[in-house]
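<instruction>
Derive structure tokens from the sequence
<entry> Chain with its tokenised backbone below:
===
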Amino acid sequence: MQLALYEKYDLRLPRYTSYPTAPHFHAGVDGKVFEGWLGELDPKQPLSLYLHVPYCEEMCWFCGCNTKITKHYKPISTYVAALLDEIENTLGKLPGDKRFSVSHIHFGGGSPTILKPDDLRAIMAAIRTRLDILDDAELAIEMDPRTTTDDLIDAMIECGFTRASIGIQDFNENVQTAVNRIQSFDLVRDVIAKLRDRGIRGINVDLIYGLPFQTVETLQKTVDQTVALCPDRLSVFGYAHVPWMKKHQQLIPTEALPDTQERWAQYEEIQNRLAKLGYVAVGLDHFAHRDDSMALALKNGLLHRNFQGYTTDRAEALIGFGPSAISSLPQGYAQNDPALARWQRSVETGTCAIEKGVAVSSDDILRRSIINELMCNLAVDLGKICAEHGTSADRFAPEIDRIRAMHVDDIAKVNGDNIILTELGRPLVRAVCAAFDTYLDPEHGRHSQAV
């Protein structure tokens, strides 16, 4: 891809894991509003749950997550007690006439593997007390191989986990040292082998490009080592350098970060190499085996996108627990207070610890559907979606004109009401989605680079 395209389209744009996006959440959506939304949910529809564990034993300097560092377990024990209270308080706000079911549970962080086995069991028991977990539900947990013990894997098996997401990022020692994430290939290989031996067959791995001292050549080796582990899915993210938001990123040697052209070369190398090794490209930054459920969802037009990225989860309501966790309900989005102490004080009072959110309008829902189709399928039939929403695609004439202008660069093509991205346009899909974003202020927004 030519450098001119990098400069033209590689803008700072949202990742579109929601619409409206998080910078447009406001304090008008508080705990009371959220409680009202919970009370309106339909028990016939299964729920999705996200549980945030905001602790790590060591800070990775590339990290953009909401987490704290601790070498002692007492703060984590205190947190787990509050999390159990929040589960009881929040799920107690659901309509009480019938029990709800759960189709998807995801533990994220931070490092959920910092939990003691009995605390993981206690959290899952609290969920099962209130909700029925469907037989085919996916239970996933993000894992740091450095803090994963055999006892924790035993607890995961007892609790019914079906998928594990392993943070690899990069296997090169120089890169690992520069971002303070030291873990060997042998360690990762052994953890994955133990998971599979115990029956957890779904294995995701995370890789990051754009890190200090990375080159196309070092990434080739990392990709080959990673594929040798036979993961079902890979998430491949461009490092988002936002030191004004995450102060620890100031520890990264900025002079060693690849420039824009090198980042693009790294992205293209990973894309091409994974394709040659038998993985299907899923949306912007995911890859899956052809027989994996995510690849099948893509093939059948059932792929979805939420705050965890691409997913096969189709639940209409996702409820988040823990500081900074975001809930996505039919009525809108609500985010828990990111400050651990304030979140805990709210939980202790028995109220929902919502700091901000946004109710969605009919126009938001329509535009969200369009953006989701573009992000997932790299194509959208505006006529079909608009008809489903009781309107005409003519209302999007200005947006279509903006995208038609991308045709000259072979980024996207417009055929009537159909918008189709080219393979050249895949990494720039966020720029195409931005045409439908009425909230976006690219001059003042502080998002990550599009690639």
About this structure: The mean pLDDT is 93. The first strand starts at residue 47 and ends at 53. The CA atoms of residues 114 and 126 lie 19 Å apart. The two ends are 13 Å apart (CA to CA).
